[in-house]
Request: fold
Amino acid sequence: MTKTNPGNFFEDFRLGQKIAHATPRTVTAGDVALYNALYGSRFPVQSSDVFAYAVGYPRAPVDDLLVFHIVFGKTVPDISLNAVANLGYADCRFLHAVYPGDTPTAVSEVIGLKENSSRKTGVVYVRSSGFNQDGTKVLNYVRWVMVRKRDEAAPAPGDLVPQLPQTIDPSTLGSACPQIAVRSYDFALAGSPHRFDAYAVAEKIDHLDGMALEEAEHQLATRLYQNTARVHFNQFAQSKDRFGRRLVYGGVVISLARALSFNGLANAFHIAAINGGRHVAPMFAGATVFAWSEVLAKAELPKRTDVGALRLRTIATKDRPCADFPLKQNEADDPAVILDLDYWVLVPR
Amino acid sequence: MTKTNPGNFFEDFRLGQKIAHATPRTVTAGDVALYNALYGSRFPVQSSDVFAYAVGYPRAPVDDLLVFHIVFGKTVPDISLNAVANLGYADCRFLHAVYPGDTPTAVSEVIGLKENSSRKTGVVYVRSSGFNQDGTKVLNYVRWVMVRKRDEAAPAPGDLVPQLPQTIDPSTLGSACPQIAVRSYDFALAGSPHRFDAYAVAEKIDHLDGMALEEAEHQLATRLYQNTARVHFNQFAQSKDRFGRRLVYGGVVISLARALSFNGLANAFHIAAINGGRHVAPMFAGATVFAWSEVLAKAELPKRTDVGALRLRTIATKDRPCADFPLKQNEADDPAVILDLDYWVLVPR
Amino acid sequence: MTKTNPGNFFEDFRLGQKIAHATPRTVTAGDVALYNALYGSRFPVQSSDVFAYAVGYPRAPVDDLLVFHIVFGKTVPDISLNAVANLGYADCRFLHAVYPGDTPTAVSEVIGLKENSSRKTGVVYVRSSGFNQDGTKVLNYVRWVMVRKRDEAAPAPGDLVPQLPQTIDPSTLGSACPQIAVRSYDFALAGSPHRFDAYAVAEKIDHLDGMALEEAEHQLATRLYQNTARVHFNQFAQSKDRFGRRLVYGGVVISLARALSFNGLANAFHIAAINGGRHVAPMFAGATVFAWSEVLAKAELPKRTDVGALRLRTIATKDRPCADFPLKQNEADDPAVILDLDYWVLVPR
Reply:
């Protein structure tokens, strides 16, 4: 009897199936330091206990994306070990702040299954949730992945494509963000004077800076999240694959783009939700990542005058500066584009 | 008068000599985070304060191998700075759990000396012990290294090969492991249902996954342990050596193999002892490490029904998957094998 | 209206101008662990809470250079984003110990401005200070950088070269160092028996060891300090530059040299001041760093019999051992020299 986990194949999933994922992990100041060293993030609420306390947090919360990566990492051995491709994210809400000392766990529910016409693979839709040690839900998102079948002849385990929101209603945002004492928010220390009102819909911002990525860096990051997907680590196997190289975990690109976006969005201190995201092209170590953002929408939050929400589209590229705001919407578009992320951030008013 | 430490040469050691090693170091949550980032370890007792507390620890203990590496690192400037080869380990016992905030120190005693027939080198046997800030012994092991003589004409400083146990009596194991509340041990969160009874003597487990290693990674790891052996860091000198490259500290390979072994041994949450270990071939950055294990023996522990002991042999290879369980016992055997480790782990019953 | 920070150009500065820098950041045990992993530092006061407490600190303080790098990093986006060259440091005093949990901020004052004859660039002199969360000044130093002009036709914004001390009066040193209980300072655990009296003026010490540096390592270090200078990270842009490569942040070389200097200066536990420093040649990843030191002077501290001050000159080289104490004073001198640092350390008496 084999004791190793070969991962689930398409026919192993069932609609409504719930999976409690290993491994619970206490997040610490060590994880936060590594996150900073890996991406160079500079948002003051997550950097400084003093700044965070002054504006209304008990102390500096853990970066939203670090929470996302930790929860995501837990789901990999059960959901995507046999994935051909990570197709997309949707309806991702950051529901409660996480602090060093907290111990997130993760649970997923299968909410959709659709066999591909080849019958060799199928798409699995899961809603994954992260919980704190006290049961508080801290994060909730849907992702869908294309997973191999073990046996092509096996019947499809279900046939349902779930309805997913194109964007998250901004009136539901903000539960992970305490009431912000904007008078105590030091805009000089934060690095920018620009508040919610300074941003306009359709405004485009080139984040200017570029960050090269090394193999050691993305491996350190991805292991930190206990993400076990083989494509990120097994160079021996990857050398026989079509790319010949390790693929960078998409979350590393998201975190790099977010850190670069500080230059232009320094006061966008909290990611409240991710409407959707696509990894448009694979990222490999050795390339330099650039990013730009567009303000897609602005929204006030119900009963809150402290912060407003900006809906952003952030595009990341490899080895290509973004002064001319490149996009990839079709195959013929710019091949340097690697990420297309649609999300809501909160900004002081 | 020179103030730099040239390291001890073979004729500098004396039987019975005791050496208190520098540098005491407080282990923190930062070290734990780096350990996770470097190896991707997923054992829940060491990952989660909540899980550890539920099963009987006051909080998550530091990974056994991190403790080993920290103690080992301290011994290097005094014992093995002039080593030609690290020949082996034996009789290594993990005696007391270490927690973040503890400050290990290390002491070694010379228990054997044997000049080689060439008279250019000799083998030094030391028993090294790690102690916590309160004097509690946390770790105890023997290693033997081949050390250069400063002066070939110098007389041998002693002539004794110590008797070492081939294996550690399992009835002496477990002092670093509190009584485990198995009912509170959540096997779903731990990532595997397999308890002590599920493993059979002679069972072989291919751990499947492969992990590539970069120069930056093994350097970060080895510096974290304050291990100063030049072969791991001094590329300028190594470039003139027979390999032309930095050698990876053997402890990095042990930790990678242990982390890989989670896939198949997820509930082997504690290394209680290491019977012996050999670095069969050198490891260099750039290779992908694989591992497999065999259950050599099983043992109950006196007066304990909570956990049982598995004696494991774990083999690590470079750039070679382990589905066919490769070994290197003779020179003609598989050259991809780099580690052959014989140790006792504890598993819930 | 652009929201990104293009950095200040020479004509943007004014004499007497004060700049409060982003981002405040709480230093944690995670930062300390990363610092150790990046450089392999072994000074016991900074490594062990137990050792530090025994000699008179409340617990292990943060390494002086980590404090320097964190404060320096904050100044980069405002001072040196458009720098052509970082020309020098002077009058750097470590005024108060920093502990994990503290939250440094940084402020700079422009104290000198001198346009170059080309009118394309000018030299900006700033005095930068780091403060703890309670307003205590922890660090104070002057640096001068050559900064591009945005518009060559713009008038020079000032014309003043400040008078700077060649060396810091040793009678002013020591405020960051509590009274040391030398009787409780364990020289065996510290790794060397050599006290203040053992060192002689003009004594030269080859630190022997060499440490190779990888791209991932200097990037991790420099991001940890939230230093955003593009030359360290943007390989895409650097590939078009004269070197074709990322430049290593000079502070990384200083920290490597300091860590190497442990071998010969193990009891030089605190950097009290930096008289001056020059990065004599650029450092790139892939090279192995070596170092040697000369004792330039010795001084007693007023009313203190616990510690004395050594004025050291530490030279770092790349891919060149330092047994013959190489220097670069003129262009024709040894091109392997990369750092020439003049500083005061405290040593137990």
